[in-house]
Amino acid sequence: MTTESQIILRPGRNLRGSVSLPGDKSISHRYAMLAAIAEGPSRLENYSTGADCTSTLRCLRSLGVKWERKNDADAGNVVEVQGSGPSLTASVEPLDCGNSGSTIRMLSGIAAAQNFSTELAGDESLSRRPMQRIIAPLTAMGAKIESDNGNLPLRISGTLLKGIHYAMPVASAQVKTCLLFAGLLAEGETIIEEPLRTRDHGELALRAFGVTLDRKGNETRIRGGQRLRGIDARIPGDISSAAFFLCAAALFPESQLTITNLLMNPTRARLLDILLQLGLRISVTQLEEIHGELVGTVQAEGGSLKGATIAGADTAALIDEIPVLAAIAPFTKQGIEVRDAKELRVKESDRIASIARNLRAMGAQVQEREDGLRIPGSQRLHGAELKSFGDHRIAMAFSIAALRAEGETMLRGSECAAISYPAFFATLQQLIEN
Ligand code: S3P
Questions:
Q1: How far is the CA of 322 from the centre of ligand 1 (A)?
Q2: Whose CA is nearest to atom 13 of ligand 1?
Q3: CA-to-CA dists, residue 284 to 260, 262, 329, angstroms
């Protein structure tokens, strides 16, 4: 267990400079899992440095997969995986998924198709998060899963799965990916319908590893039994991590920030539209496609911030960026309203409650609703004692709000930023103009 640390945050000024960020967390998890069940070696450059993606690698090692980290000054954090093919080896210990919802939900799709049983567990936060959303469809495919009323630990008795046609009740890319992975290892065809379009890294990663799948509207079809070939890849920088710096830049009219090698996948880049709408000046150059993923350089210049409403499909597309957008909302002119965001209550913390609690501690007016928030604009905030609630995105979001508060802020539980971005505070310091 990590001991709790705290950090003092002081008001800041413009963000200036150029950075390239560690690899996207969503893509890192998927590439590691597919590299594990592929044939031949894979080399994953700029693999996410976050603890969550290490949880995925550790679980894979427990399932008999061989991988090594290589340090390379140019290629960032490199992971070389020796593919095991579709059949893995039973783990003697329960798999520890740590804080990572992606690890447990997506890996369950692979574990359910093995000819052995796997137990999966995680930390206190993960143990509170809903797993029925994967238990129901994997059970329909033939797996036997025991849980504590839909919570961890999960005991999955793997089997030869059968393809299904499943309409997902919740918009979740983790669930979609879990079922595509299970479908890949199942007999027959699997058809997944999602209520809203969610991030498509699962589909793109499967194609990169040589799998054929069809996508029409919100429906994806995959045929079981296809073989995967290992790949060499450079993982684009994490746009959800970039969101903190872009929102920080937006707080100061003189900011000039460049982020190179950044993920620009259209199912993730809605953030840029919202920031443009708020008033940040943004240009994207050097767009290229790597293994189906769009990558580019983003240049952002501060301006004055208007307001925005985030609802419906936008909420699903911005689900990981809402904490930081909410944290800068008081500094916009008209404020920000977030609707249709019930899912935020079952993330690493109840994010609606965590955001409202910290904003109020800083003196802000906030309306908290069951499925969202209304944060009026043109407010002045003061430094305060804040909590991360053990949630990496809350820790980073409020480090940004603190830059525009009056006086110092003390953030308790700041260490959890390492779940997705260990170098966050160091990079933020480096970008803030002195
Ligand atoms: C993710 C999907 C989202 C997101 C999470 C990563 C993924 O979760 O919040 O950080 O990589 O598929 P849900 O699938 O629960 O919406």
A1: 13
A2: 172
A3: 10, 10, 24
Pick the CATH number of 6-22+236-433 from 3.10.290.10, 3.65.10.10, 1.10.8.60, 3.90.380.10: 3.65.10.10
Phi, psi (deg, nearest 5) at residue 239: -70, -25
Q: What pTM does this model have?
A: 0.98
Q: Which of 123, 238, 320, 391 is catalytic?
A: 320
Across the chain, mean pLDDT equals: 97
- What is the mean pLDDT of the segment spanning 108-122? 98
Across residues 252-264, what is the average pLDDT?
97
pLDDT interval class at 2 (50, 70, 90): low
pLDDT of residue 100 exceeding 90, the answer is yes
Name every protein residue with a CB atom under 6 angstroms from any ligand 1 atom.
26, 101-102, 172-175, 177, 199, 319-320, 343
Write the CB contacts of 355 (distance below 8 Å, at least 6 apart in sequence). 323, 326, 327, 366, 373, 394, 397
Q: What is 25-234's CATH topology?
A: UDP-n-acetylglucosamine1-carboxyvinyl-transferase; Chain (3.65.10)
* Residue 238 is a catalytic residue: no
With the most atoms of ligand 1 within 8 angstroms of its CB, the residue from 24, 25, 26 to mutate is 26
